[in-house]
Amino acid sequence: MWEYTDKVRDHFLNPRNVGEVEQPDAVAEVGSMACGDALKLSFKLDENKRIKDVKFKTFGCASAIASSSALTEMIKGMSLEEAMKLTNKDIAAYLGGLPDEKMHCSVMGKEALEKAIANYYGKPVLEEGAQIVCECFGVTDTEIERAVRENNLVSVEDVTNYTKAGGGCGNCHEKIQEIIDRVRAEVRPAVKAKLTNIQKIKMIEETLEREIRPSLKHDGGDIELIDVIGNRVIVAARGACAVCKASDITLKHFVELKLRDLVSPDLVIEEARS
Amino acid sequence: MKVVYLDNNATTMVSAEVLEEMMPYFHMYYGNPSSMHAFGGQVGRKIQEAREKTAAFLGASPEEIIFTSCGTESDNAAIRSAVSTNPEKRHIVTSRVEHPAIKALCANLATQGYRVTELPVDKNGLLDMDQYEKSLTPDTAIVSLMWANNETGVIFPVETAARIARERNILFHTDAVQAAGKLPINMTHNAIDMLSLSGHKLHAPKGIGVLYIRRGTKFTPFMIGGHQEKGRRGGTENTPSIIGLGRACELAAKNMSAEMTKVKLLRDKLETALLSRIKSSRVNGDIQNRLPNTTNISFEFVEGEGILLLLDEHGICASSGSACTSGSLQPSHVLRAMGVPFTMAHGSIRLSLSIYNTESEIDFVIEKLPPIIDRLRSMSPYWHSGQEICTVQ
């Protein structure tokens, strides 16, 4: 049995905005019966060009229905520019998370939204130059690339969970791996080139200043970089952080993750003991 | 909430009589059946009794019965023994609709250089017996065909198939996990060399299985260890479960006629009512050659997982061959092998009954299921109420 959150269950059992908008400004259909899920999205804008009315019809499992319902709730009242920025991760987060194998349901929501907005602007639907990689589920290279980039996917199995590509005959696994390798090579150029110690310290200090201090200061705390020895980043908690019992967690889960993400994946945070 | 359990091909309730029979052997009579003392010896005698009851149920002799831990272990023991006692033969014949226990095992052996023929089935899930006959070669070590399919209940003519294999000196194994208790099995009248059973499909507990091996069949053990089961399956006996299985076999023999009459009537009532109340629905699998307790129905334009979760809201337990419930992205290999169209395969559910189901439970499902399908169809972009037109390009 799938472990669905209460929110997924709620949106499946009591789906919001089921149906089709009358005289819609935009309509889109994604998926197919063969794939096992499909979503038809339609919306209408108000005089300020914000989404006034939005409805869906979905063929698919509980999480596909819940993702569609969540999507309609989320985009109601948004401008198209705002709606464009919505990612599949936002849909999954709104639902309190989806099982890995079901992430493709949130991707389907994102695709329908994109296609509907393109339909509104009268743009062609299939992105130019896109090639079908997975014949079984009709997934293109651009769709796979985007899923890899936005969700930081590392394996073919991840890609299958998020896009369904590779979930059928398996003939495209090699091509999917090539896409993953290519995207990952672009995404982390900073990691590939080995940083000198000076560069590393500079980047850490910049990241602390830009990404971390503002949120710490919000709570009356601060952080000071003491030293960088290899991949060990020695810091000291200051202000409210120095007396906060949760500062260990802040350091490990927030500061370290940020630094690993933005500077180098091998960094380890250590607190200077005075 | 009252549970209406219609998932008996997945597992069954341990019957009260079976549980009662087992209980003393956990806490009171816990001796090791292999011990020299009387305290253990009395358990040994009880196991012998269970072996005799199991043998009687199958029309076999007690020494042809090996107790294992489950159906999958029995399948593994049978096939692995067949290939290792026939080292010069490198070919296995099976079907496309076998249980994963056989399917995955054969796929694994294929990576070790065995040639595996997976016989196709027709749209009703039946084998082409001419094609089967032609698939047998002097290089064939073993044929393994299931007696009855777990998803559709379709019955294979395994006794005929076994005779054909015997004529060519080829070993024949059948996975009879779903057939046992629902169809008469008598090993004295057939040419099947090995047969697998599972306790928990028969109102005995999980974790107990049987491998029948015809006397005179060469056998090398899969589980190597102590002298238990005459050295054919090492490991201290699962005494309470073996004793429970013995009792379950006795009861199954007694209840066989009820399976063929009472259970079948309820299944037919359920199936007929659902087909007539829900349009664009159909039964998967051959109607004639089918287990009396199973129905696999497809409802077009909806997806199985949603049906199951909405049934679950009413306490009704069923299962589905849809992609979403299996964790893979494709519908069940059985429905695909039968060529069930995608529009139908994704919306398939299996309802499997037991002698413990009542008519009021069936009426309850007949009342609850049609509105569930309506509800999901009203959400489906492919369904247009009043018309049965599919809009897929």
Question: How would you characterize the overall build of this protein?
Answer:
The complex is a heterodimer of chains A (274) and B (393). Chain A is built from twelve helices and eight strands. Chain A is an alpha+beta fold and 274 residues long. In chain A, the strands form three sheets. In chain A, strands 1-2-3 form a three-stranded antiparallel sheet, with helices on one face. A three-stranded mixed sheet of chain A has the order 6-7-8. In chain A, strands 4-5 form a two-stranded antiparallel sheet. In chain A, helix 4 packs across helix 5 (103-121) and helix 5 packs across helix 7 (156-163). In chain B, the strands form three sheets. A seven-stranded mixed sheet of chain B has the order 2-8-7-6-5-3-4, with helices on both faces. Chain B has a four-stranded antiparallel sheet with strand order 9-10-13-12, with helices on one face. Chain B has a two-stranded parallel sheet with strand order 1-11. Chain B is globular, with a radius of gyration of 22 Å. Chain B folds into two domains: 4-10 and 256-378, Alpha-Beta Complex (Aspartate Aminotransferase, domain 1), CATH 3.90.1150; 16-252, Aspartate Aminotransferase, domain 2, CATH 3.40.640.10. Chains A and B meet through strand 2, strand 3 and helix 2 of A and helix 9 and helix 10 of B.
Task: Please tally the β strands of chain B and state the result.
Answer: 13
| Tally of DSSP helical segments of chain A | 12
* Unreliable spans of chain A: none
Number of helices of chain B: 13
Give a quick summary of the entry.
The complex is a heterodimer of chains A (274) and B (393). Chain A is α+β, with helices and mostly antiparallel strands and 274 residues long.
